[in-house]
Amino acid sequence: MSFFPPSLENLIDKFAALPGIGKKSAQRLAFYVLSLPESEAQSFAAAILEAKSSVHCCPVCQNLTDGEICSVCEDSRRDKGIICVVAEPRDVLSFERSREYKGVYHVLHGVMSPMNHIGPDDLKISELISRVAGGEVLEVIMATNPDTEGDTTAMYISRLIKPFNVKVSRLAYGIPVGSNLEYADEATLTRALEGRREM
């Protein structure tokens, strides 16, 4: 038996479906949203709808953008000959915070994970191969997380890229094995970039 009205239960369920949010946190968030003034609640809802309708994948690197192409691909000062391959859009932000990387990115939107039924066709790998086949790319840095799925994805992509005579490197293990790039500090990411090695 539910103690809350159905509409509140529905709101709690929506928050609980978010990653990292348990039932108790979902309840706190739902009660917080209910306590907002009407205008702030509408603004919150409008922000979600606006982001959902305007944000899309950059046709070049697959990062998130609300323009024709993302700001990194648009920047003429970036070295288009070096592509840093990351699993998720939030990983781009981690590298950008370090202010050391001057190349461009490619976002896979996940990693290969047979346990979760995620294979190569579920990722943005073919778009990366098309970029490499264009002939301008000199190096591809595999910057997936240093865990089983990240390593498997990196090895798979490196085998696809090798025939193009492009240098394929992997981040040095300055990043602890099993951790996420999202939580790495700027100094660790800088050391990992500097110490990358060819695969």
Provide a short characterization of the protein structure.
By secondary structure, this protein is of the alpha/beta class. Helix content is 44%, strand content 14%.
Plain-language structure description:
This protein is an alpha/beta fold and about 200 residues long. The chain has 2 domains: about 5-55, RecR Domain 1 (Helicase, Ruva Protein, domain 3); about 55-199, Dna Topoisomerase Vi A Subunit, Chain: A, domain 2. It is about 45% helix and about 15% strand. The protein has 8 helices and 7 strands, in the order αααββαβαβαβαβαβ. The strands form 2 sheets. Strands 4-3-5-6-7 form a 5-stranded mixed beta sheet. A hairpin with a 6-residue loop joins strand 1 (about 55) and strand 2 (about 65). The radius of gyration is 20 Å and the shape is elongated. The mean pLDDT is about 90.
SSE arrangement:
Layout: H1 6-16, H2 23-35, H3 38-54, E1 56-57, E2 64-65, H4 71-74, E3 79-86, H5 89-98, E4 103-107, H6 125-133, E5 139-142, H7 148-161, E6 167-170, H8 186-194, E7 197-198
Parallel strand pairs: 3-4, 3-5, 5-6
Antiparallel strand pairs: 1-2, 6-7
The portion of residues assigned to helices is: 40-55%
The CATH topology of the largest domain is: Dna Topoisomerase Vi A Subunit, Chain: A, domain 2
Q: What's the mean pLDDT score?
A: 90
> What would you say the CATH architecture of the largest domain is?
3-Layer(aba) Sandwich
- What is the SS-derived class? alpha/beta
The beta-strand count equals 7
The radius of gyration computed from the alpha-carbon positions, rounded to a whole number of angstroms, is 20 Å
User: What is the helix/strand order?
Assistant: HHHEEHEHEHEHEHE
Numbering strands along the chain, what is their spatial order in the largest sheet?
4-3-5-6-7
Number of helices, counting only DSSP H or I runs of 4 residues or more: 8
Principal-axes geometry comes out as elongated
Query: pLDDT below 50 for ≥5 consecutive residues: which ranges?
Result: none
Largest sheet: 5 strands, mixed
Distance between the termini: 57 Å
Q: Beta-sheet strand percentage?
A: 5-15%
Top-tier CATH class of the largest domain: Alpha Beta
